[in-house]
Amino acid sequence: MPPEDKKEEEKEVKTYTEDAFSKVMIEAKKAKSQRNSLQAELEELKAKNDDNERAALEAKSEYKDLYEAERLRNDELKKDRDSQNVKFIEAKKRSAVNDALGGFKKSEYMNFIDINKVLMDDSGVIDSSTIENEVTRLKQEFPELIKSSKSSRLPNDAPSGGSTNQKALTDMTKDEINAVRLKLIEQRIN
Question: How far is the CA of 74 from the CAs of 45, 64, 180, in angstroms?
């Protein structure tokens, strides 16, 4: 088969696959849209059904059944709210440890954080010592998962150009020499 025919055939295949992919994506979007609209319609029908049942019970003066139904609904809402609160607190603890740690290489590694060891008081303030303990544990047990801080500094803080003295050492007094020495020592420490 000549090279021109191969190139032409590859173009046809590529065009065909692009068209097929576009069709599949359009169909997937339509299906997702339909699913969302059906879900909304289902929720609406459930709400109408609950309202109708409530109205029927009220009409029959069956307040005990109505009370039980509302109590069950409130219990479900409370469970949902409590689970959301637990998820929020866990996320807050994970975030605090991750921030103190400097981050993981991948977000999945945040599951290695033992959130039960991170304590929070009633006002929502996380105990910093428990964060430090967890960070230390993670650094010891999983150092390969933690982002390494890339330092652009030279090793041992390599010397820079420094400053030149205005006077020669032989022209300085003892006080001036001591002042220059003290200044150099302070620069070296910092």
Answer: 20, 15, 77
In whole angstroms, how far apart are CA 13 and each of 5, 8, 20, 26?
A: 12, 9, 10, 20
d(CA 172, CA 164): 14
Give the SS3 label for residue 126: strand
- The answer, as to whether pTM is greater than 0.90, is no
Spatial separation of the C-alpha atoms in residues 134 and 180, rounded to whole Å = 45
Q: How far is C-alpha 22 from the geometric centre of its chain's CA atoms?
A: 33
What's the pLDDT tens digit per position in 1-31? 566 666 666 667 667 777 888 888 899 999 9
Alpha carbons 6 and 93: distance in angstroms, whole number: 59
Which three-class secondary structure state does DSSP give residue 173?
coil
Q: How many CA atoms lie within 13 A of 62 on its CB side?
A: 11
37-53 pLDDT, tens digit each = 999 999 999 999 988 88
Provide the 10 A C-beta neighbour count for residue 134: 23
Q: For 3-15, b where at least 16 C-beta lie within 10 A, e where not — what string?
A: eeeeeeeeeeeee
How far apart CA 27 and CA 89 sit, in angstroms, is: 40
